[in-house]
Design goal:
The radius of gyration is 22 Å and the shape is globular. It is 30% helix and 26% strand. It folds into 2 domains: 3-20 and 237-423, Alpha-beta prism (UDP-n-acetylglucosamine1-carboxyvinyl-transferase, Chain), CATH 3.65.10.10; 23-234, Alpha-beta prism (UDP-n-acetylglucosamine1-carboxyvinyl-transferase, Chain). Strand 8 (141-146) and strand 9 (149-154) form a beta hairpin. It is built from 14 helices and 24 strands. It has 424 residues and is α/β, with parallel strands linked by helices. It has helices at 23-32, 49-60, 88-91, 101-108, 130-138, 170-180, 196-207, 239-251, 267-276, 314-322, 340-347, 377-388, 400-403, 409-415, and strands at 3-8, 14-18, 40-43, 64-68, 73-77, 85-86, 110-114, 141-146, 149-154, 162-164, 186-190, 211-216, 219-223, 231-234, 255-259, 279-282, 286-290, 301-302, 328-331, 352-355, 358-361, 371-373, 392-397, 419-423. A 4-stranded mixed sheet has the order 22-23-1-24. Strands 2-15-17-16 form a 4-stranded mixed sheet. Helix 11 (340-347) packs parallel to helix 12 (377-388). The longest helix has 13 residues, at 239-251. It binds uridine-diphosphate-2(N-acetylglucosaminyl) butyric acid. Residues 24, 27, 95-96, 119, 122, 127-132, 169-172, 193, 310-312, 334-335, 377-378, 405 line the site of uridine-diphosphate-2(N-acetylglucosaminyl) butyric acid.
């Protein structure tokens, strides 16, 4: 298993970082290609493990995958051998594997899909898919669960209906948006997640002729169409990678120009970074961040659905707040078990206590390097950030988590002055 070796503290972090395509936007867009008969070209794919897993899943379902030029563009064509079986052996490592269920039933009226795997973020509650299944049932999908697989079918086309999600879920919103596109008649989806990655999915589907209209912040109207037409679509930049580099510059007193991302999409995060003292300049598609000499603490950061503060940046902000000049707190409202990184930060000297869903972070930490273990994707990024500001040689193990979602992470960090290498 690969590890990162980081020698810190990084004294001069400076330069430019080019943000990759968004993993969490690309995954549902790739799943949605199952709805097509025609060829689809997707540009700006991040080359990370989760994307490879999704491409393997599509291949196993019979899609023909052809990489063009720089391997960040992919041409997907359906074959006559389409299957509807999403195997556990592929989806066990990735939660987004469940996103093929709705498109398969919408297009072929049947599917056998494995329960998905992915980061363990919710303690004993696991990562349920009840919202996906209940909503698909309303569109006419029937299912049975046998031996870890969802055996689903519909009597012909799915049928449009009104669905009011009892709570907000990114994945269930994507699942239903995709499934309703080929359903008979009108579907109204209320209480949808409105993350930029969801807008990217609806823009992609609209580019192929889907009749989707946002008629409120969290409501969409979809009129079913018979088929989707050929399209070429460029995936948006990665919001969480952008946020991670903004935090890196702030915590390491760096000076970074972060390119290829629209700053309007991360207003909440940038406002918090300004609050802790970062100097931030915004451009049309880039952000200049200069870290302060003294980082100020913040009380009550609370993770929330977009446009609130994202759970996927809470671990990175925890590292930042360990270096603040006073006590801060972060409350996790999306995934209750998402604090495993806190224990590893304590091994580096972080003074963090967790009570229920809130982490109290004391600040004024002088991190001292140690060996630490990644527990999930964003935790691994946080541990790398901590290594950057720790004294000595930090070893971050299990970086396969990081490889699931950060493209070229160590090379991007090396380019801006971080002493990091991958140990095989
Ligand atoms: N939930 C249910 N039932 C469901 C679905 C979700 O109870 O059927 C609960 C979850 O257990 C969780 C909450 O609802 O407590 C929110 O989960 P959501 O469905 O919104 O998350 P997701 O679709 O599984 C996506 C991202 C995550 C990100 C969350 C929240 C992808 C592939 N994953 O997950 O990204 O943390 O939204 O924003 O888009 C990551 O990239 O590191 C990552 C974990």
């Amino acid at each position: 298993m690969d590890k990162f070796s980081i020698t810190g503290p990084c004294r001069v972090m400076k330069g430019e970082v080019s943000i990759s395509g968004s993993k969490n936007a690309a995954l549902p867009i790739l799943a949605a290609t199952l709805l097509f008969d025609k060829t689809v070209i997707i540009e700006n794919l991040p080359r990370v493990r989760d994307i490879d897993t999704m491409l393997n899943l599509l291949k196993s379902l019979g899609s023909n995958i052809q990489f063009l030029n720089n391997k960040k563009t992919v041409k997907i064509t359906k074959t006559k051998k389409q299957k509807q079986f999403a195997s556990y052996s592929i989806v066990k490592t990735m939660r987004a594997g469940i996103l093929v269920l709705g498109p398969l039933v919408a297009k072929y009226h049947k599917s056998i899909s494995s329960f998905p795997g992915g980061c363990v973020l919710n303690g004993n509650s696991g990562r349920p898919i009840n919202l996906h299944l209940e909503a698909l049932k309303k569109l006419g999908m029937k299912y049975e669960i046998k031996k870890g697989y969802i055996h689903a079918k519909s009597n012909g086309k799915l049928k449009g209906d009104k669905i009011n999600f009892p709570s907000i879920s990114v994945g269930a919103s994507q699942q239903l948006l995709m499934s309703a596109v080929l359903a008979k008649g009108k579907t109204l989806l209320h209480n949808l997640a409105c993350e930029p990655e969801i807008k990217d999915l609806t823009n992609f589907l609209i580019s192929a002729g889907a009749k989707i209209k946002w008629i409120g912040k969290r409501t969409c109207q979809i009129i079913g169409v018979n088929s989707l037409k050929e399209t070429k679509y460029t995936v948006m930049g990665d919001r969480i990678e952008t946020g991670t580099f903004c935090v890196a510059a702030t915590v390491a007193k760096g000076d970074l120009l972060i390119k290829n991302f629209d700053p309007k999409l991360i207003k909440t995060e940038l406002n918090l970074l300004k609050k802790v003292g970062a100097k931030i300049k915004l451009f049309k598609n880039s952000i200049h961040v200069k870290g302060p000499e003294r980082i100020k603490s913040i009380k009550n950061i609370t993770t929330k659905e977009y446009p609130g503060f994202p759970t996927d940046l809470a671990p990175q902000f925890m590292v930042l707040l360990c270096k603040a000049s006073g006590t801060s707190s972060i409350t996790e409202n999306i995934f209750q078990g998402r604090f495993l990184h806190a224990m590893e930060l304590q091994r580096l000297g972080g003074k963090i206590t967790i009570k229920n869903r809130t982490a109290k972070i004391e600040g004024n930490t002088n991190f001292i390097a140690a060996e630490v273990m990644s527990s999930d994707l964003r935790a691994s990024a946080a541990l790398v950030l901590a290594g950057i500001v720790s004294k000595g040689n930090t070893i971050v193990t299990r970086v396969y988590h990081c490889d699931r979602g950060y493209e070229n992470f160590e090379n991007k960090l090396k380019k801006i002055g971080v002493n990091i290498k991958r140990l095989k």
